[in-house]
Amino acid sequence: MSRSPNGIGAAVTAVLLAFASPAAAERLNIGRAASPEEIKGWDIDVRPDGQGLPVGKGTAALGETIFQERCASCHGEFGEGAGRWPELAGGAGTLKSDSPVKTVGSYWPYVSTVFDFVHRAMPFGAAQTLTPDETYSLTAYLLYLNDILKDQDFEVNEKNLATIRLPNEKNFFMDDRETAEKEFWTAKPCMTDCLPKEATITGRARILDVTPDKASEKAKESPPVQ
Amino acid sequence: MSDPKQIPEPPSPPSRRAFLRTSLALGGAVGTGAFAGKAAAVESKNLPPNVPEWSQGLGDGVVSRPYGRPSKFEADVIRRDVEWLTASRQSSVSFTPLHQLEGIITPNGLGFERHHGGIAEIDPAEHRLMIHGLVEKPLMLTLEDVRRFPRVNRIAFLECAANSGMEWKGAQLNGCQFTHGMVHCVMYTGVPLKLLLEEAGLKTNAKWLLPEGADAAAMTRSVPIEKALDDAMVAYAMNGEALYPEHGYPLRLVLPGWQGNMWVKWLRRIKVGDEPWHTREETSKYTALLPDGRARRFTWAMDAKSVITNPSPQAPMHHKGFTVLSGLAWSGRGKISQVDVSLDGGRNWRAARLDGPVLDKALTRFYYEFDWTGDPLLLQSRAVDETGYVQPTKAALRRHRGLNSIYHNNGIQTWHVLPSGEIENVEVA
Q1: Rounded to an integer, what distance in angstroms lies between the CA atom of residue B273 and that of residue B212?
Q2: 3-state secondary structure of A121
Q3: What ranges do the domains of chain B cover?
Q4: Facing residues of B191 across strands?
Q5: What domains are there in chain A, each with its CATH number?
Q6: Domain spanning B113-296: which superfamily?
Q7: Of A10, A68, A164, A166, which one has the greatest count of Cβ atoms within 10 A?
Q8: Considering only CB atoms, which chain B residues are within 8 Å of A205?
Q9: 3-state secondary structure of A161
Q10: Could you please report the per-residue DSSP string of B279-325?
Q11: B113-296 and B305-426: same fold?
């Protein structure tokens, strides 16, 4: 041990006191180095610029076969969603409507997210069982179902996946609530006569009642928790 | 596989109206609030002047309940779900019974759940936390290693960004458990994330973290380095004992004030990078679609919010006269500085009394005492936080966000109290 116990104590106290300060604290020498093989086994994330994509390739035509076998039971033959399972295709042009349909094609900003998510979490109940080639093919098939790829034999691989752009990418913007909703920072709220007249009831859960013990058939069509 | 015992089947709830009729017929002989619904039979041999049976015979001995549990008379105080909301219980949500809880700390077995791939049951001996990417020394930590780091304790609320999300288009669910129950507040014990990152040694271009869960959803979110070095923690205990499996045993990320989805449970890996990853949970989900078709992303902080938990639809009024109104307020931007209560749908407001600790980014309890004449009421609460943010009306919120942004619905809630004491979820103008 190269440092005095007091030195360690002081360093730790400094860190805990100045939680937000960029103090270059001394190492405590706890744990061990992760090996390259260990990292490789768990390092599955993929970024929009393609960083993290494994070597591999696939086509929509190959993806269709895998999709029918391993995905369609929940997501429908054409990604339309079976029952209440999520839909994966369609919805183009609906984002400004009263009932927007948000899918890979209509809403998602990046193709990398499709690859990353399908590999890490799908099929539901058998996560991380798809090979890189299968994941490329499924990604291509989802793009094909959404009219992003028109040629079902087009090869998607680690070099070109990040070059495929999704139409909705430009419509995302960074959180700006503190400026866009500045009017909510009024500090001194109104206390008396805040409404011009007596408050009137404009809607009641009794009408749209979806409380569990009384769920009506109509209520079951309500949007799912997200 | 998830243990079915972790998510109790809700018993078919008693009809609210029938219950109310019975309790009012008893001349208000039953308790209210957290203890409502356990009416004793009027002719009980356990009531005075008789000597109750439990005052004569012996009860169970010590360790008859090695891990204690609530009285059997509290069996209805449970998390509940709305089964038809989701296609599967492995990717679903259950709600905290806010109307049955007191103070600001949520018991470990009652905090709402939100899983995307079920509850991972992890053997702590086989769990590892790996920290790698833009670091000097990629680290592999056992749980024992994590527990060797200096510890901190912190009380924090955790709210799902979709809490109240079903109420955007209008009043829907009759009960604050369902309208507001995707929030809980516990004391976490763990390591400041900053210390773990310093142990690995951040490179100068380290700007973002990607925490990842070990569950079947391998949950991932991009976290900016500023938050990681500020008040983020890796926790292994809540309310003094190990995290429960449904809350991420053996390790979870704690990001005080920020949307619950980012508090990755079953934490197995933290990758350090220089750009965000735009994972599915921060693109397809947890982005706010606005009426013009654009979508706001990385909406991390939870806006100030409050709700009256008693009375509320699941906890109706039983008495005219002196009434204690009780509720919770919280803000992801700091401390609650003020809560006001209205009995007339927001026309006139009076200051509520904050009671118990008022902590940074924690649930805060408020009370308002008044005499109920039996006339209808339109109850509302409004939170103000230390940044000067005032909880908006639902109408004001909709003016900014439309009806389809799903997340961050912190609009003022209205409960309509009927002369019968029944309460319904309504909207007012």
Answers
A1: 13
A2: helix
A3: 113-296, 305-426
A4: B234
A5: 5-32 (no CATH), 57-171 (1.10.760.10)
A6: Oxidoreductase, molybdopterin-binding domain (3.90.420.10)
A7: A166
A8: 171-174, 313, 424-426
A9: helix
A10: -GGGTTSS-EE-TTS-EEE---BPPPEEEEEESBTTB----SEEEEE
A11: no
How many CB atoms are closer than 10 A to CB A81?
18
Phi, psi of B146 (to 5 degrees): -60, -35
Q: Which residues pair with B295 in a beta bridge?
A: A172, B289
Token digits of residue B93: 């949500």
Give the tens place of pLDDT for each residue, B359-407.
999 999 999 999 999 999 999 999 999 999 999 999 999 999 999 999 9
- The length of chain A, given as a count of residues: 226
Q: Residue B298: which of A117, A124, A174 has the nearest Cβ?
A: A174
Strands across the sheet containing B364-372? B305-310, B321-330, B364-372, B353-355
Topology given in CATH for the domain delimited by B305-426 = Immunoglobulin-like (2.60.40)
Contact A187 B284 (CB under 8 A): no
In chain B, residues with a C-beta closer than 8 Å to the C-beta of A212 are 10, 13, 80-83, 178
Look at residues A165, A170, A117 and name the one whose alpha carbon lies nearest to residue A143: A165
Over 80: is that where the pLDDT of B179 sits? yes
